[in-house]
C-alpha cells in the first residue's frame, strides 16, 4: 500500500508539477474578480454631525482617522479618501461625556466593500453649554478727516447684536467691532455698511445678519463756529 502511494507521488513527478503549475495559472486567470479580495488602508476625514443646539464643541477630535477596507480586486482602484469617510454623530452628546467611541458602522464606504479596522477607536471631545447675550457694536474708524472737518457723531444701527458661544467665552462687557472704516477722504456725512468682527473665534452671531450700518455725521469746522 505504501509502495503504491510512493509510486504515485514519484512517478512522472515533473509532469505532475507542470500540471499543478498550469492548474494554478488557470485558477488565478479564470476565477472571478468578485471572489478575490484585497485590503487597503486609507487616511480619511472624520466628519462631525448633529451637535446639539444647546452645546458648544470647544475641544475637537482629530480631523482624520485611519481605515482599513477589504474589497474585491475590481473595486480596490475605486476606493480612496474621496469616497471613504467617517461620521461621528453627536446628537446624544453631553457636557458630562468626554470620550466617544468610533466603530466600523460610522464609516461610509462604497457598496461591496467592508471596513476591517479603524484607528483610533475613540476620540476625546469637550463641550460647554451655549450662552447667548446682546453685545454692543462699536465702529472701528481708521485715518483722520481732511483738515477743516470734524466728526461730530457716529451712529451704529443696530447698536447691539445677539452673540452666542461657550459659557466661558461669553462675557457681557466685551464689544463687537466693525470692519475698519477709512474716514481719511470723507468731507460730508455718509452712511456705510460694515461687517461684524467678533472678539473671539469661539463666538458666533445668533442671526444671519453679518453687517451693520454706520452713520457718520461730518461737519466743517467753520459751520460749528
Describe the structure in your own words.
By secondary structure, the chain is mainly beta. The protein has two domains: 36-124, RNA Polymerase Alpha Subunit, Chain A, domain 2; 130-224, RNA Polymerase Alpha Subunit, Chain A, domain 2 (Beta Complex). 14% of the residues lie in helices and 45% in strands. The chain has helices at 2-10, 13-30, 221-224, and strands spanning 37-49, 55-59, 64-72, 85-89, 99-101, 107-108, 114-119, 122-124, 126-138, 141-142, 149-157, 160-166, 176-178, 181-182, 190-197, 204-205, 211-220. The strands form four sheets. Strands 2, 9, 11, 12, 13, 15, 16 and 17 form an eight-stranded mixed sheet that branches. A five-stranded mixed sheet has the order 6-4-1-3-7, with no helix packed on it. It has a two-stranded antiparallel ribbon with strand order 5-8. It starts with a helix and ends with a helix.
Brief sketch in words of this structure:
With 225 residues, this protein is mainly beta. 14% of the residues lie in helices and 45% in strands. The protein has helices at 2-10, 13-30, 221-224, and strands at 37-49, 55-59, 64-72, 85-89, 99-101, 107-108, 114-119, 122-124, 126-138, 141-142, 149-157, 160-166, 176-178, 181-182, 190-197, 204-205, 211-220.
Features of the shown structure:
five-stranded mixed β-sheet; RNA Polymerase Alpha Subunit, Chain A, domain 2; 2 domains
Radius of gyration (Å)? 34 Å
- CATH homologous superfamily caption of the largest domain: YbbR-like domain
Residue runs with pLDDT of under 50 for 5 or more positions: none
Distance between the termini: 130 Å
CATH topology of the largest domain: RNA Polymerase Alpha Subunit, Chain A, domain 2
Structural domain count: 2
Count, helices: 3
Q: Which secondary-structure class do the elements indicate?
A: mainly beta
Amino acid at each position: 500500500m505504501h509502495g503504491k502511494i510512493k509510486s504515485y507521488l514519484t512517478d512522472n513527478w515533473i509532469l505532475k508539477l507542470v500540471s499543478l503549475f498550469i492548474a494554478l495559472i488557470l485558477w488565478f486567470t479564470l476565477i472571478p474578480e468578485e471572489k478575490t479580495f484585497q485590503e487597503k488602508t486609507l487616511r480619511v476625514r472624520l466628519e462631525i454631525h448633529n451637535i446639539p443646539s444647546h452645546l458648544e464643541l470647544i475641544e475637537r477630535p482629530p480631523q482624520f482617522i485611519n481605515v482599513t477596507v477589504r474589497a474585491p480586486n475590481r473595486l480596490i482602484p475605486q476606493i480612496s479618501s474621496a469616497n471613504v469617510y467617517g461620521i461621528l454623530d453627536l446628537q446624544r452628546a453631553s457636557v458630562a461625556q468626554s470620550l466617544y467611541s468610533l466603530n466600523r458602522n460610522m464609516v461610509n464606504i462604497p457598496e461591496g466593500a467592508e471596513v476591517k479596522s479603524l484607528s483610533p477607536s475613540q476620540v476625546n471631545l469637550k463641550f460647554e453649554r451655549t450662552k447667548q447675550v446682546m453685545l454692543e457694536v462699536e465702529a472701528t474708524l481708521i485715518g483722520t478727516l481732511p483738515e477743516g472737518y470734524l466728526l461730530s457723531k457716529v451712529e451704529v444701527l443696530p447698536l447691539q447684536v445677539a452673540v452666542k458661544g461657550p459659557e466661558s467665552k461669553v462675557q457681557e462687557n466685551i464689544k463687537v467691532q466693525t470692519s475698519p472704516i477709512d474716514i481719511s477722504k470723507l468731507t460730508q456725512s455718509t452712511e456705510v455698511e460694515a461687517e461684524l468682527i467678533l472678539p473671539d473665534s469661539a463666538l458666533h452671531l445668533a442671526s444671519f445678519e453679518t453687517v451693520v450700518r454706520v452713520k457718520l455725521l461730518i461737519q466743517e469746522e467753520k459751520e460749528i463756529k
